[in-house]
Amino acid sequence: MYTFKYILKRLGLMIFTFCIIMLMCFVLIKLLPLKIPRVQGSDPNLMYYQLQSRGYIRNLQYDSAGLVVGYERMPIMIQLWKYIKNIFTSGDFGISYAMPQYQFHPVWDVFVEKLPPTILINIYSTLIGVPIGLGLGILAALKKNKWQDQVINVIIILLVSTPSIVLGVMIQYIFCFKLHWFQIMMEPGFDYFTWPMFRSMLPAVFSLSLGAIAGYARFTRAELSEVLTNDYMLLARTKGLTRGQATLRHALRNSMVVIFPSILAEFIGVLSGSMLIESMFSVPGVGRLYLDSIVTLDYDFFMMLSGFYCLVGLTAGIIVDISYGIIDPRIRMGAK
Q: How far apart are alpha carbons 133 and 126 in whole angstroms?
C-alpha cells in the first residue's frame, strides 16, 4: 500500500515537472526568430500557409512577386493551445519546416524512423559495459590495495576524466583510420540486425561503453569493498564458507541492492548523452536529429525531442527508486 501511494505521488510530481519544463521550452523557443529555408523546386509560400493553418502566424504580407515577406505572430498562449489541441485530438506533433531534408514531413513519423538506431547502440553499449564494468569492479574490490586494484583505478580515472567525444575521436583514429578494423561512418539503410550494420555500429558503441565501464567499475568497487568489511561477512567465514562462497552468496547479493539501480541510471545517462557520438559516427538516430533541430531552429522537432529526453530522464528517476524495493523487499518505499 505504501509503495502504491508512493508511485502515485511520484507520477503526479513527474507529470507536473514535465509540464513545467515543456511550457518553458515552448515559450523560449517561440521567442526566437522563425527561419524557413527556401528549398529548390518547392513553393516558398507553402510553408507559411502551413504555419498559418496551424495557428502559429497570421496576416501574411506579400511583395510584388507574390512571395511572403512578412507576417504577424499569434500570441504564444494561443500557439500553445493549438499545439496541445493538435496532439490530443489527432496525434499531430507538427511538421518540419526548418530542415530541408525533412520539410513537410510529420515530426512523429521521422522520430519513429530514427529511434531504433539510438536504442540499439545504447543497448549494445550496456550489454558490453555491464559485465566488463562489474567484473573489473569485483576484481578491484577483492584485490584491494594490490597492484591489480591500482591498475584498474588508473584505467577508471582515465576513462572517467576523458569526455566521450575525445574517446570517440581516439577510436576513429586508431581503429578506423590506422587499423582499418571498422568504417568511420555507420552503414546506411534499415537492416539493423545484419552483420555489416552491427559492425558499423561498433565504433559508436565502444565510444559510449568505455565511460559506462568506468562508472560501473568504480561504483561496484566502492560498494563491494564496504560490504566485504561488514561483520556478517566474518560470521559467514567462521561458519565454514570459503571467501568465494561468502562473496558470491552474501557480499554480491547485498551490494547489488545499490549497484543495480546505478546500472539503470547509467543506461539512461548513456541514452541521453549519445547525441554527440551519433553526430560523430553519422548514426541516423534521435540524438543527431535533436542537434540538427537546435541548429536549424526547427521548433516542432525541438519540442518533440525535448519532450522525449525529458520524459526519459523523469521516468528513469521513478524506475530507479522503485527498483530498490523490488530488489530488497525490506525497503518499503513511502513508509515512514
A: 10
Q: By C-alpha distance, which of 210, 205, 190, 208 is closest to 272?
A: 208
Q: What is the pLDDT of residues 93-118, one digit of tens each?
A: 888 887 878 878 888 988 888 888 88
Q: Give the three cell numbers for residue 290.
A: 535533436
Contact 42, 103 (CB under 8 A): yes
CB neighbourhood size of 155 (10 A): 16
Phi-psi category of residue 309: left, alpha or beta, with phi > 0 → left and psi -120 to 50 → alpha:
alpha
pLDDT of residue 74: 82
- Residue matched to cell numbers 493551445: 81
Residues 127-139: pLDDT tens digits? Answer: 888 889 888 888 8
pTM value > 0.70:
yes
Instruction: Output b/e per residue, 47-61; b: 16+ Cβ within 10 A.
Output: bbebbbebbbbeeee
C-alpha cell at 174: 586508431
